[in-house]
Amino acid sequence: MKYATIHAITRRAGALALGLCGVAALAGCQVKTEVEATVGPAEPAQRAATSFVHCVESEGGNCVQNNPLLGSWDAFALLHWLGSGSPTSILQALRGELEHHRNPYAIQDRLVAHAAGYREPLRGAECRPESAAAMSTLLPKLRSRVEGRLDELGLWRGDLGGVIDGLTKEAIDGLGEGWLVHMTCYGDPYEIWVATAKEGDRQTVVGFLTDLPTWLEGSELSDEAVEGRLENRGLGASTTLGVVREGTVDTNWMPIPIEEF
Fold first, then answer.
1. Does residue 21 lie in a domain region?
2. What's the CA gap between 119 and 195, in Å, rounded?
3. Cβ 91 vs Cβ 155: under 8 Å
4. pLDDT-based confidence at 193, cuts 50/70/90?
5. Would you give the end-to-end CA distance of the chain in angstroms?
6. Can you give the three-state secondary structure of 146-199, one letter per residue?
7. What tens digit of pLDDT does each residue of 159-174 get?
8. CA distances from 40 to 35, 50, 211, 245 (A)
């Protein structure tokens, strides 16, 4: 009997507690829940890109490490050049660029020089990640663009097709699980695209661009960015152009320096 009485009292107390909870909820009380923070798939690549840019600001070319994946980035850069470079520059320089591509030390030296050249411009530019595109989605677009453009220009040949296939495979093998991180800056160079590749359990930087065509999910520079780049490019003795506005020259034929990589 005592057990039944205690059990009944316990049930009434529980019902009363539930009723009070319901009244509190109607009065506007909210139940706090813990939401576990999630990390997006591109977050490791964006962090790696940010660290690399900060390193270049202080160390320049010393931030580039010897890595076999640099060859995959060079293959991507070659395809990018074939998809946007002028026919004359391709005819004149393709053989030399392919020879360069076979030398891993030459590939590393080029990236070292590229990073060293942007040490000063990146200082104070305050670049931050804006977005990231998976290389697995960009590479098919790049391959299709190269084949279509060279065929349209009458440069497509059987042996060149084999070269394109080889470069595409090399890029996919090394960069297939990587990202192209788009970073925007408050100052020159205003925009930068940092490429990463998966190495073990982490993303590592293998290269970067300061121009990306719209057909590869890039964007056109604003008038402010164009003027800013022009102001920060001294004439000197160099024959290269700092920035070429859209429509200034016919980029299908003029071997303008913006094609260089």
1. no
2. 17
3. yes
4. very high
5. 90
6. HHHHHHHCCCCCHHHHHHHHHHHHHHHHHHCCCEEEEEECCCCCCEEEEEEEEE
7. 888 999 999 999 999 9
8. 15, 16, 25, 36
Number of structural domains found in the chain: 1
Res 221: pLDDT: 58
- The answer as to whether 186 is a domain residue is yes
Structural domain includes residue 93: yes
Helix (H) or strand (E) holding 15: helix 2-26
Residue 117: give the domain boundaries.
Answer: 43-259
Q: Is residue 23 part of a domain?
A: no
Q: Which of 56, 75, 72 is nearest to 113 (CA)?
A: 56
Question: Structure tokens of 124?
Answer: 């104070």
Residue bearing tokens 């040949």? 157
Q: Which amino acid is at 178?
A: G
Which pLDDT band, with edges at 50, 70 and 90, does 45 fall under?
A: very high
Q: Which residues is 131 bridged to in the sheet? A: 182
* pLDDT mean over 222-228: 54
User: What integer pLDDT is reported at residue 81 of this predicted model?
Assistant: 93
